[in-house]
Design goal:
Layout: H1 3-12, H2 19-31, H3 40-43, E1 57-60, H4 61-68, H5 77-91, E2 93-96, E3 101-104, H6 109-120, E4 124-128, H7 134-149, E5 156-161, E6 169-175, E7 178-184, H8 186-193, E8 201-205, E9 221-224, H9 230-243, E10 252-255, H10 264-273, E11 283-287, H11 292-298, E12 302-306, H12 308-322, H13 325-356
Parallel strand pairs: 1-11, 4-5, 4-9, 5-8, 9-10
Antiparallel strand pairs: 2-3, 6-7, 10-12, 11-12
Length: about 350
């Protein structure tokens, strides 16, 4: 798609109040007036009046866990608590280069995912953003526990990432009581853990829209934790909506990295494509406890949960809007224009950087 076609689609398509802002942002990219990272629409820090995080219903992560554990202890919970620290040390560590220290990223994430899946009892789950696989392991362990208990049959987790499980990447992890940062592959780490629940996991590689229809819905639960810019979240939501196009019920959705220094695009996508259809009282925003090292990196950490048992019909209406041909064409036009702008601005930035040295 060329720039002229993209500009024409920006002028003609899209719901009121959305396409105009996209047009303004992309036009600035065309002119080279600003770099992609400075585009307000794509990466703007959330504000209470426009993006609404301070007006949503907030709950602390520990209180949310207590709510999920309010009844009897779920089957498999004790075993998960036993194996979770080891798996977190292998798949959930991060490194702060400024202070040269390791820290556990979003330390309650695994327990929250396990209990949430146990509460929802889904059969089909999709995760956007495999990363190092800590979330995948937590979800799969909960699915296996539900299956062993007889609550569900034939469970499966599809997890999607741009990197394949055989891609070597720098990997902070704990080995023989020593924390290191060294190249590794996800397949190697997972094989070394010998986790039985990994048999329930299907790994998919690529961008969410390019992987459709190999992404085989419909899904009962989705965990969205891939790219946190606006276009990536828009793509993941569209992929999920397409996968559930003919489903009678909407999936429950959990978003990670809401707000802070990395999640402005997440807030923006949710605000534009989901919240106009959903009663704010049905939105649960979970404030997660984080270490001081992580606080320096991201500011604060929150997750959003949309429970289809409460807002399912509203989510289906939002999905219908996302899968309109005009909306899909607009998404592809935005992604194309953004890619062109990055290719155009990249050499310019490098030239200006050399001149300033």
């Amino acid at each position: 798609m060329n720039l002229e076609t993209a500009e024409q689609q920006f002028s003609e398509l899209g719901p009121p109040g959305v396409s105009a802002e996209i047009r303004s942002s992309i036009a600035s990219m065309y002119r080279g007036a600003i770099t992609p990272k400075r585009i307000p629409f794509l990466n703007r820090a959330p504000t209470p009046t426009q993006d609404g995080p301070e007006n949503w219903q907030w709950i602390s992560g520990r209180h949310f866990l207590r709510r999920l554990l309010s009844e009897k202890e779920p089957f498999g919970w004790t075993h998960y608590r036993k194996v979770e620290p080891t798996r977190a040390a292998l798949t959930a560590l991060r490194f702060d280069p400024e202070n040269e220290e390791f820290y556990l990223s979003n330390e309650l994430r695994g327990e929250l995912l396990w209990l949430l899946v146990n509460s929802l009892s889904p059969t089909r789950v999709i995760e956007y953003g495999t990363g190092r696989g800590f979330g995948s392991l937590s979800i799969a362990h909960s699915l296996k526990s539900l299956h062993s208990e007889g609550t569900i049959t034939d469970p499966r987790l599809d997890t999607l990432d741009r990197l394949s499980i055989d891609t070597e990447q720098v990997w902070p992890r704990e080995v023989q009581s020593k924390t290191i940062q060294a190249p590794a592959k996800l397949r190697e780490i997972w094989d070394g853990m010998n986790a039985p629940e990994s048999q329930l996991v299907r790994f998919l590689t690529g961008e969410s829209l390019k992987c459709y229809p190999p992404i085989a819905g419909p899904y009962d639960f989705a965990f969205i934790d891939a790219g946190h810019d606006f276009l990536s979240v828009w793509s993941d939501l569209t992929s999920l909506a397409l996968s559930n196009r003919n489903a009678p019920k909407a999936p429950s959705i959990l978003f990670d990295d809401l707000g802070g220094k990395v999640g402005a695009g997440v807030v923006k996508a949710i605000s534009i494509f989901l919240l106009p259809f959903i009663d704010p009282r049905e939105v649960t925003v979970i404030s997660m406890p984080i270490s001081e090292a992580e606080r320096r990196q991201v500011g604060y950490h929150a997750m959003m949960f949309l429970d289809a048992r409460r807002c399912g019909p509203a989510l289906l209406r939002a999905f219908d809007n996302l899968t309109r041909p005009a909306m899909i064409r607009q998404l592809y036009a935005a992604k194309s224009a953004y890619a062109v702008a990055r290719r155009t601005l990249g050499p310019i930035k490098r030239i200006l950087s050399r001149r300033s040295q």
